[in-house]
Amino acid sequence: MQAGHSHRCKIWMRVLLIAGATLIPSFALANSQQAISKNSLVHVASAPRIVTLYQGATDSAVALGLTPIGVVDSWLEKPMYHYLREPLDGVEHVGLETQPNLEKIAWLDPDLVIASDFRHGRIAPLLAAIAPTVSTNTVFGFKTTLTMIANATGREAEADELLQRWDERVSDFRQQIAERLGREWPQKVAVVRFKSDHVRIYTSGFTGSILNELGFKQPDTLQTQGWGMKLTNTENIPVLDADVMFVLLEPDDPAIADNYQRWANHPLWQQLSAVKSGRVFDVDPVSWMMGGGILAANTMLDDLYRHYGLSQSLEQQQHTCLSPLPNHVEESAC
């Protein structure tokens, strides 16, 4: 009884700290954005109670054999991506990645919070009032996220093994695709995401960093465009010209499907190199962009092996089966 009373008192103190911290002027919050990063050497118990506040952190935690006590809602396939539903069955949700519920996080009484400066820099003092917090600069650096969580939870050996497997797969893919395509390698790649009223082509982020590591090149039109470009007019279709195109479509959205058909039926689309050579592939936006962790990265690499007709050893296939894949992903090696 006394222990329960002590726990409730501790939680109320945290909630009061949060309420008080909300009165901190915005300029003070901005100046304290590095506060969470300074806790990067936090090391918690062998079975830590962790809350993950971005998708890549949730993916990475599961890959390391950790079950968070709290996670944020997924961007698609709400409330959680299909490939993470089984390992996260019954786990509490603490709001949106862009707006986590601080009071709910406090009531969960975590040992550790996994955050991102990009998403949560302004609420750094509030998170620190709840629990030790570690943070990365971005939400898409899956290797950085994996290593950070491993270092904070004593899972360094597991992370090293996961990254070694990844490096081996990358090396194997690069060797096989160079042999398969010969002079046609490296290929220029366009990663295109259709929305209801525009099209985005990406050159960096989670997808771009992986494709770059695998040896793909950027289209000439996009080499100086930062994250990529937003296109609103079909007259801009020539910007998408590349040797291969991967198209991300959000499922069950008729407006997006209609917009895709409008662009794909345009005469300029038919002149694209990837269209002429039959190298336009629809891919899963969860594994190719939204998942943000090493499990999603391995599923994305599985897709690339399959699209290029490259072989994977049984050992490689087993290594990608660290977590259930989306139900709609075909030809799964798992």
Automatic annotation (TrEMBL):
Q: What is this protein called?
A: Iron ABC transporter substrate-binding protein
Where is the secretion signal located?
A: 1-30
Entry keyword annotation includes Iron:
yes
**Protein location:** Cell envelope
Signal as a keyword? yes
Q: The Fe/B12 periplasmic-binding domain covers which part of the protein?
A: 49-312
Q: Which GO terms describe its cellular component?
A: outer membrane-bounded periplasmic space
Q: Which residues form a coiled coil?
A: none
Under PROSITE patterns, the record lists: FE_B12_PBP
The entry assigns this protein to a family as follows: Belongs to the bacterial solute-binding protein 8 family.
This protein's UniProt keywords: Ion transport, Iron, Iron transport, Signal, Transport
Query: SUPFAM superfamilies per the record?
Result: Helical backbone' metal receptor (SSF53807)
Q: For this entry, list what GO says about its biological process.
A: iron coordination entity transport
**Mind telling me which InterPro entries this protein's record contains?**
ABC_transptr_periplasmic_BD, Bact_iron-sidero_bind
